[in-house]
Write a structure and sequence with these properties.
By secondary structure, the chain is mainly alpha-helical. The protein is built from 5 helices and 3 strands, in the order αβααββαα. The chain has a 3-stranded antiparallel beta sheet with strand order 1-3-2. Strand 2 and strand 3 (about 75-80) form a beta hairpin. It is flat, with a radius of gyration of 25 Å.
Length: about 110
């Protein structure tokens, strides 16, 4: 960093302020993403997230088809566990299946 003149101080302060604002936004994004990973949801919130009825959620809980946490008579869900559950049901495309077959060692 080279020295600057007195006249350049306002410009340098503006640059410093902009960089500081950018860092603050990045820190907020990181903290928000950490909070949502461990966010605890009740049945109604899980229902909205998954776009399923509350009755369907209870049905899936009874059949042990969905990740759930039970405390007494109440059930809770972690947002990240529900998102992983959704991802686990992904159906492969024809091209992905074809690539998997081609990667297998031939007998």
């Amino acid at each position: 960093m080279k020295p600057f003149t007195f006249d350049q101080i306002p410009i340098m302060m503006n640059k410093l302020h902009n960089k500081l604002e950018h860092l603050e936004k990045l820190i907020e994004q990181i903290s928000d993403s950490r909070e949502t990973k461990d966010e605890l949801l009740n049945v109604e919130e899980a229902s909205k997230l998954l776009d399923l009825s509350v009755a369907t959620i209870y049905s899936k809980v009874c059949k042990k088809e969905i990740p759930v946490n039970k405390q007494g008579k109440r059930i809770y869900f972690y947002r990240n566990e529900l998102m992983e559950w959704i991802k686990s049901g992904r159906v492969k495309t024809y091209l992905e299946i074809k690539c998997d077959v081609e990667k297998r060692p031939k007998i």
